[in-house]
Design goal:
- By secondary structure, this protein is an alpha/beta fold.
- Helix content is 38%, strand content 18%.
- The chain has a single domain, classed as Carbonic anhydrase (Beta-carbonic Anhydrase, Chain A, 3-Layer(aba) Sandwich).
- It is built from six helices and seven strands, in the order αββββαβαααββα.
- The protein has a five-stranded mixed β-sheet, with helices on one face. A two-stranded antiparallel ribbon has the order 3-4.
- A hairpin with a 2-residue loop joins strand 3 and strand 4.
- Helix 3 crosses helix 4.
- The longest helix has 22 residues.
- It is an enzyme of class 4 (lyase).
- InterPro entries: Carbonic_anhydrase (IPR001765), Carbonic_anhydrase_sf (IPR036874).
Length: 228
């Protein structure tokens, strides 16, 4: 047997011992405080970034490129993974979590600028991101280096996903949609693992966000304040 699996199962015993008494309040259902939409990336510690150790607090979704959209016969809609806690458990906070150096954003950038060949499943996911990033790629300044371009587009993608939530008829007005970027590459502040707020309900101007949400002022940061 793969030794990694053996090791993981041994570590699960530690988890089970630690959490044994923490599931009592969620035996009959869940009412998570927030739904988070993270990127499927092994470097993104989806509950760990919030220091969360309480079962039932966060409804965590993950996919390539932290997308909130899925394609159906009726067209593109908010993904059921994201919508479920909003529609059925009363969750009123949705957090889209992008991250620095995102591989999905990088792949989409490469597809839009140079063409890219991927297996069909990955191609499908990139195909859902590409329409959201096309305008962002075109708006990048001339001469920008690749790393900076990617991290600007990470923000741009987060903005577009928040916009999709805000504009969806399936998401009630009572839901607050927040966009953040998880930084583990010293891009924003030099504190690895810190989360930076870049968008709240479609507002993305740093000064406006800091005025509107003074309690978040020191956590609001952006790399790119573009016109659109």
């Amino acid at each position: 047997m793969n030794q990694t699996l053996v090791d993981l199962l041994e570590r699960n015993l530690v988890h089970a011992e630690t959490f044994e008494g923490r599931f009592d309040d969620v035996q009959d259902g869940q009412r998570p405080d927030a739904v988070t939409v993270c990127c499927s990336d092994s470097r993104v510690l989806q509950d760990g970034m919030w220091d969360n150790d309480r079962p039932g607090q966060l409804f965590t979704c993950a996919n390539i490129g932290n997308r909130v959209v899925q394609r159906t016969a009726e067209g593109e809609v908010v993904s059921g993974d994201v919508l479920y806690p909003i529609a059925h458990t009363g969750t009123e906070l949705a957090i889209v979590v992008g991250h620095t150096g995102c591989g999905a954003v990088t792949a989409t950038y490469d597809q839009l600028t140079e063409g890219l060949s991927e297996p069909p499943g990955i191609e499908h996911s990139i195909g859902l991101l590409a329409p959201q990033l096309q305008d962002g790629v075109e708006a990048l300044p001339d001469g920008i280096d690749r790393e900076t371009a990617i991290n600007r587009l990470v923000e741009y993608n987060v903005d577009r996903q928040v916009e999709l939530l805000v504009e969806s008829d399936d998401v009630p007005d009572s839901v607050t949609a927040v966009g953040v970027v998880y930084d583990f590459q010293d891009v924003y502040s030099g504190r690895r693992g810190e989360v930076h707020v870049v968008n709240v309900d479609g507002t993305r101007a740093v000064d406006a966000l800091r005025r509107a949400y003074p309690e978040l002022a020191d956590r609001v940061n952006r790399l790119w304040e573009y016109d659109r």
